[in-house]
Amino acid sequence: MKLSIAGILLFGLALAQSGCSGGDDGSQEKSASDQPPLPPDLADMTPNLVLETSMGRIVLELDRDRAPKSVENVIAHVQNDFYNGLTFHRVRPGFMIQAGGFTADLAERQSPRPPVPNEAKNGLKNARGTVAMARLPDPHSAKAQFFINLVDNSFLDFTAETSRGWGYAVIGRVVEGMDVVDAIAEVPTEQRGMHEAVPRQPIVIERAYIAE
Q1: Which among 148, 153, 114 has a CA at the least distance from the CA of 129?
Q2: Rounded to two decimals, what is the model's pTM?
Q3: Which residue in 28, 94, 98, 99 has a CA-CA distance of 20 to 30 Å to 148?
């Protein structure tokens, strides 16, 4: 049976997320002095996730109202310095860029947190510049990995509460650094083992933190 283009992209998105389970690999060093303090009451603000990458700064405005569980999950990972040192390990021009699971040598950093329920039924669309949670074929398996849509990817949107219809939960949007996102999308990539579309030159998240 032939797969559609949408089906191939969906399969690849799940494949790139396929290793994210289990405990933290302990490979990252935490330094409170290197990270700005979090606001005193995150519940009263719209959190902005700042990604200082090796190619520039990206700021993601997270939608706490529409995707509360996913946003709290991401914030918890940021508080634990989980994303520091990880890479954009999958880059697909005309589709999306993905991060949150692998180091530059494709060593997996496993999330210590449980999966979050799929919040794709929140009315947010996988439009250009939005950020969404990556997951396994199980609709409710998202943990730490996320992707930024480079174009309008409506086939990733929620359509029904079925295994094929759940879609991918949008949790926010790029409010600064879309030029950086587009630049990342243009880097040369290659196949490395089971990993496809890996940038030849690692694009590292040097620091991730929450700012107002």
Answers
A1: 148
A2: 0.83
A3: 28
